[in-house]
Predict the structure of Protein of unassigned function.
Amino acid sequence: MTDIPAPPSGWTAAATQAAAELGLGTDWAALAAPDWTRLCRRAGEILAGQGHAPPAGWEGALARALGRPDPAVARDELAQDELAQDAANTVLAERGEVFAPEDDA
């Protein structure tokens, strides 16, 4: 992945245009992952149409510029959360405190 410290201003303008076209609004941090993916795809198309195709890994730089958590960082945090949950489940299982969902029926 390419580490881009600061994206050109045209990227944020393309993201704003894409958000307007897609009806997503500009609360960047609140966009669900599928909407963010759609926005990045459309912003990339806008930039390519202007002759400025973004490089690989540009989505992370765009996310940082817009105040949205970097997708790569979010994936790492999710993986850590899953590991923590697995560890907690292991401890509960060792204590005999894990129940199957069907036990509640």
Q: What stands out?
A: Residues 71-95 form the longest helix (25 residues). The two ends are 47 Å apart (CA to CA). Residues 6 and 80 are 27 Å apart (CA to CA). The mean pLDDT is 79.
